[in-house]
C-alpha cells in the first residue's frame, strides 16, 4: 500500500529576541540535524533529538597523537626512499650499503617508536584511572 506524501504548506511564524535566537542556534549546532527547520520540527512534534557530546579531555591526547603522526611521516618517507634506492641498484647488492641504510633507519625509527610506546602507555594509564574513578 502506498503512503500518500504531503507537502509542507503551512507556515508557523514566531518572533524571537536576538538572545533567544542565539540560544536556539547554539543548541541546533550541537545536534545531528542538517537544517534548523528539521530541528525545530522535531522539537515541536516531540520527536527525539540527538545531541552530540564531545569529550574535551581528549583534546590534549589527540594533539599529541597528531604530533606523533607528523614525526613519523618523514621517517616513513625516508624508509620508502631508501628501499627504492636499494631496488634501483639492479642486482648489485653491496652489504655495506645495506648495513649503513639499516643503521640510519634504525637510528631514526627506534627513538620514535619508544616515544610512541611510552606516551601510549601513559595515556592508557590515565584512561584506566578515569574508568576506575567512574565505576567507583
TrEMBL record:
Organism the protein comes from: Mucilaginibacter ginsenosidivorax
InterPro entries tied to this protein: MobC_2
Lineage, uppermost ranks: Bacteria, Pseudomonadati, Bacteroidota, Sphingobacteriia, Sphingobacteriales
Protein name: Plasmid mobilization relaxosome protein MobC
